[in-house]
Specification:
Length: 314
């Protein structure tokens, strides 16, 4: 499709861009350019304890240095509380969100009593203690968090198609449980904010790292509950360290050296399966490579004789 395409890069300002986030930035930019669409940057600064002051400015200047310029002024999620408040109110009114007074310790104890000790991705599948049909807060204490009631979602088994990963399926109720929309510390949860803002900004295509693919079914459930149109999804390959583990800001992944933006972008392009052969004596290497990759993104077979299948990456 052309024209109506709107994509975005949505970094959390917990530090400068790392190699993995540069891949997501480049992929989302290329996909927007290849579709003749618009590309937005949204700073996801809702997890206040994890945000690093000034990291947003650093990220925006890193993107600029790479020639990845948004088509509209960047937005900040910290300015969007009223919209998240409104979405939560609608979910509460529809019986799809309820307050929860459980501490992590209490959740662990309930699960342990059921013989469940294993946390999924470090997150516990909430046992439903505070569900309204089970007595709500049981008159215990004031609410701590607000959860999405997966049992009210109709069928919480979500089937979806990723442009790279293909057909996927997740039983959100069983595998994730009633997930948090607003945290006990008052911060908005990523799941709610991302869904509200993707709809607000008219995003047609979400292009982001594969580490976030597991969140997609939760976001689809929220889109359905709020009556929002789902975007298309494309989850890009992760950058792996020498130990085979994914790189992230959390494990101290080195920031790409943006004194040489072409080299940093070439590393990112390699992850996306794009060619990075020496360009020879090109005047503006940044413009040369971004144009070459955009053309290759449109037609992944350019110069290979292979049939066209979509984005170049495997
Ligand atoms: N803010 C999220 C992150 O940096 C990305 C959100 C998204 O692309 O959906 O991990």
């Amino acid at each position: 499709m052309t024209g109506g395409y709107r994509g975005r890069f949505a970094p959390s300002p917990t530090g400068p861009l790392h190699a993995g986030s540069l891949v997501a930035a480049l992929a989302s930019w290329l996909d927007a350019r290849a579709h003749g669409g618009r590309w937005l940057v949204r700073v996801e600064d809702i997890d206040r304890p994890r945000c690093v002051p000034g990291a947003d400015t650093v990220i925006l200047s890193q993107l600029e240095r790479c020639g990845l310029l948004p088509d509209e002024p960047p937005s900040w999620q910290s300015a969007r509380s009223a919209a998240y408040e409104d979405a939560l109110a609608r979910l509460i009114a529809g019986g799809q969100s309820y307050p929860c007074a459980c501490s992590r310790r209490e959740i662990e104890d309930v699960l342990a009593a059921r013989g469940i000790a294993r946390a999924r991705h470090g997150e516990l599948v909430y046992p439903g203690t505070c569900r309204p049909e089970r007595g709500g807060l049981h008159g215990r204490r004031s609410a701590r968090a607000w959860r999405f009631h997966t049992g009210r979602a109709g069928d919480a088994v979500v089937a979806w198609t990723d442009r790279r990963l293909g057909d996927r399926r997740q039983d959100v109720a069983a595998e994730v449980g009633d997930f948090v929309l607003r945290r006990a510390d008052g911060c908005w949860a990523y799941q709610l904010a991302v869904v509200v803002d993707d709809a607000w900004q008219g995003i047609t295509d979400v292009v982001r790292g594969e580490d976030l693919a597991d969140n997609t079914p939760r976001q689809i459930l929220l889109q359905q509950a709020l009556g929002l149109a789902p975007p298309r999804w494309l989850h890009t390959p992760l950058v792996l360290g020498a130990d085979g583990q994914k790189l992230s800001k959390q494990n101290g992944a080195a920031a790409p050296d943006l004194r040489d933006p072409v080299a940093a972008l070439q590393s990112a392009a390699t992850v996306l399966g794009l060619p990075v052969a020496a360009a020879g004596n090109v005047g503006d290497a940044l413009a040369f490579w971004t144009a070459a990759w955009r053309d290759r993104w449109v037609d992944p077979t350019a110069g290979t004789g292979r049939p066209t299948t979509g984005p170049a990456m495997a």
